[in-house]
User: What shape does this take?
Amino acid sequence: MTVTAADIQAAARQIEGHVERTPTVPATGLDDLVSAARLVLKLENLQVSGSFKARGALVRLLALAPDEAGRGVVAMSAGNHAQGVAWHARRLGIPATIVMPAATPFTKVERTETLGARVVLHGEGLAESEAHARDLERAEGLTFVHPYDDPHIIAGQGTVALELLADGGELDTLVVPVGGGGLIAGMAVAARTLVPAIRIVGVQAEGYATMARRPAASPRQPARSPQNMALQTLAEGIAVKRPGLLTRPLVDALVDDVLCVDEAAIERAVAVLMERRKIVAEGAGAAALAAMLAHPDAFAGRRVGIVVSGGNIDSRLLASVLMRGLVRAGRLARLRIEISDAPGTLAKVATLIGAQGGNILEVSHQRLFQDVPVKHAELDVVVEAVDPAHIRAMVEALGAAGYPARLLGTSAALGE
Assistant: This one.
């Protein structure tokens, strides 16, 4: 079974009035970071459920027979499919059970439960969650709702392309995050029908590059859990170990390229969207922009539409990403300063930093645990700065006053 443009048009009619027609907006403020002639953002993070998954979930639930709807549905999900299914199942009066990996961010678990679904945490990843969901399907007579490998799901997700091409002006390139492939497969079917020559580029996280045709821009290895060596990624929404049996052939036939991005690129994209456009995106939602930042030459001079596919990111994690972004940008630094252990010295150091316009956020005064003479101490000071040059000026001023200082953690802020 495959998916046609007619299926996607039918899905668009089904979801009209029940799923947000999210805005497509110019990427004002990102122009200096990308090489595209024009860039627009399709803000699927503004769906009620926080991601594009609400589209396919509704189309699939509407296809249930009355007896299937009465017994209920079960799905496995890292969060976004869960919320899409839970949201529409509650509206339609269909009992929903969602199996989620044990490490799913709290915000996605809580939101799914708030939407009325029964949540079962099981497994280290989606493969284990799917196996348990299949067990529940058999044991309880539920209908399994696959997150991507289902023609109704693919057709529903394809409606994103209909709206993006209608609202985004004349585009010659689409950039789409890829996990199991439901979104890009549906969008590719729709886009190839409307604009046959359009270029379609998928984006995957480096630890889950099941369809990628080019490696990440960075040779760094993805982070691994010390417990089970499972790949960890900020983009858990596209952390899928195997593509779908339906989606893979569509991607192979219709998608021009699938790029791979590393964790640093994904973090940077999340931070850029928040800082420059005040757009909250989860890691998977920022993956398309991450590819443009990591592979600028691939999009030079093109008119690009990218999908910000979701915004369901844990608040604590978002705060950490933003703070790490400040460190990478040289706007936040930790300095180790050598001082004499004498009254008033700390005040003098603080005065010197303040005179340079630095803002001290944290101070740690070490006398016992550092390899320094007994009448000396070391200060670890976290300072806020305008840019790397500002940090260099603080270090030079401290050194000139007799307080040698060095940057800890990274040399990026000093441009080394």
About this structure: The two ends are 56 Å apart (CA to CA).
